[in-house]
Amino acid sequence: MAIRILITGGTFDKEYDMLNGKLDFEETHVPEMLKLGRCTVDTEIRTLMMVDSLEMTDNDRELILHSCRSAAEDRILITHGTDTMALTAAYLAKEQLDKTIVITGAMIPYKFGSSDGFFNLGAALAFLQTLPHGVYVAMNGRYYNWDNVRKNKKTGYFEEINSTV
Amino acid sequence: MAIRILITGGTFDKEYDMLNGKLDFEETHVPEMLKLGRCTVDTEIRTLMMVDSLEMTDNDRELILHSCRSAAEDRILITHGTDTMALTAAYLAKEQLDKTIVITGAMIPYKFGSSDGFFNLGAALAFLQTLPHGVYVAMNGRYYNWDNVRKNKKTGYFEEINSTV
Amino acid sequence: MAIRILITGGTFDKEYDMLNGKLDFEETHVPEMLKLGRCTVDTEIRTLMMVDSLEMTDNDRELILHSCRSAAEDRILITHGTDTMALTAAYLAKEQLDKTIVITGAMIPYKFGSSDGFFNLGAALAFLQTLPHGVYVAMNGRYYNWDNVRKNKKTGYFEEINSTV
Amino acid sequence: MAIRILITGGTFDKEYDMLNGKLDFEETHVPEMLKLGRCTVDTEIRTLMMVDSLEMTDNDRELILHSCRSAAEDRILITHGTDTMALTAAYLAKEQLDKTIVITGAMIPYKFGSSDGFFNLGAALAFLQTLPHGVYVAMNGRYYNWDNVRKNKKTGYFEEINSTV
Q1: What is the CATH number of the domain that holds B146?
Q2: Across the interface, do A37 and B129 touch by the CB < 8 Å criterion?
Q3: pTM of this prediction?
Q4: CA distance A149 to A143
């Protein structure tokens, strides 16, 4: 069961640039994370962009959608900034592709030692292998349907818009 | 969807005892891992034992089985040493409980900085929420049915006994 | 031999604020670093300020100088942002206190996993215990006299202004 | 000021062997530690052996002494297991070389995430550049003369045999 991984940036992949003291992007850390996780799932990684999701445009989302549509695999993992994850999920869902698409990310950069990113990556890969076709956000150890998820900007946790609990 | 987590020890929870230079168990790290992963899944943790799985006895497995059977939750995560994971999975499967049971662990202790344990925990929790009733081993980003899994002791990776690939 | 430690902020103590995605200060990490280093040197820690050294004013430097002068200890460690370390060293040196003062810091925040800060702290404490009275900058495993040091902003390394090599 | 670094093993350089679950030696981590510490001190590294210091023989100590004597540099850092550091220090001191020799190590392996080793390495390099000729042990942020140091095996801290405090 092959999985396509599309990298778009986000906190997940941010690094500290010691020369200017700012947060920046270099290469994605997903390959080293898969190695550290001793992952034997068959994956194919493509870096589409390296952007803060607040700066992601509709052109960027169109590129992501195009990459999902044209991928040979029907299971697709997207790493993404948390701020507009739900927006991109909705953008992709409109297309009703016969694929399982899971969007994940991190609240703290993977390189910063105490990141949720490695945990999220494991969970997202697992959800991809077991959920039916559809578009989902995987954060906080859970998955959310694309039309029932938002990030609570005060707490930094994801939650359902209409909780059934 | 509540999940019961049963701790049994294994490499996952091993620590370095600086006074005798040996690997040892103290408390489980699962609660701090769930916090670091910013996990919002409803979990209930019980430490059953803290043993190297090569030293796990049938009495120990009976205790694990009893804890699975008597748990109020029908989704159960077991952290376990990797060497006899498949053995414990088979032991639990014989009972045919109407529950989803996922056994996970790590090849490198969580406290040792470059462990697969945090990734495995994320994946195991995700598989628990999506797989039908049954007994599974979750390692290397994948899940294995209890009757089709073994640890390759030369490589340290898990593999299917009868690969369908 | 007691050592006074004065905290002023700098990259050393910066943290990632997950809610706004920016680098920020909370508490200093020096106490936990001393514990991790299993340090048995008698130290007394005071947080004077938590600022980026590019924003440090002469008022701030006056406060640092006052704290050096009035400290009971004659060995003083100052944690400081790297950009104006040499400036503060010169400011303090003018006063010609009968004390050994060592300024140190980090190019990468201590909390970010691959920081030079822990190494620098060990070196700075050692230099403090062995150097004669004077004002020094300790970075990159070396010490520099206050009047012969600058940060090379292109490389991020400290160097002597007049190298005798 | 060039420094010769002699590697002998010890907890400092121990690693976790995931295939047999034991602690083991592979390569020394000193080069990557110097890089992480952004160290610009001129150093020359030689690995003499990779042993637990409880298993170090007089032959091993003779080799260390020979390496100290024949080194071109008069400043020598030795990484060493903590259990017999004081013994090796005394062995080297008998020779009364006109050199500054500092022995250091760690209570927790460098690779295990919360090690004192990186702090100790910074301190040891600093002591080497500032102490007069002689043989010293550098641990816990302090230095000890070769004839006035012992490891307290109950606490894991080093202490003076005759405290003058």
Answers
A1: 3.40.50.1170
A2: no
A3: 0.94
A4: 9
